[in-house]
Write a structure and sequence with these properties.
Helix content is 46%, strand content 15%. By secondary structure, it is an alpha+beta fold. Strands 1-3-2 form a three-stranded antiparallel sheet. The mean pLDDT is 91.
Length: 72
């Protein structure tokens, strides 16, 4: 992500889950307890920033690419 863009708490939760392994959007919604739109927006931002990638569009399977320093 751009240096002036800070990670939001839901995005940090997404990264934490993806560090455990590849996850679908639905799994991330259940695991974080967040609304699906929150997860979808977070994934879009993280994907645009090159932090995560979608491995399989039909199932919305995501994987981590780069872990940013401020993800904790």
């Amino acid at each position: 992500m751009e240096s002036e863009t800070r990670l939001k708490k839901p995005e940090k939760e997404i990264i934490a889950e993806l560090q455990e392994g590849d996850r679908t959007k639905g799994f991330l919604v259940e695991a974080t307890g967040r609304h699906r739109n929150t997860i979808y927006r977070g994934l879009e931002r993280l994907e645009a920033a090159g932090i995560v990638e979608c491995l399989h569009r039909p199932t919305h399977l995501y994987s981590i690419k780069n872990v940013p320093e401020d993800s904790q």
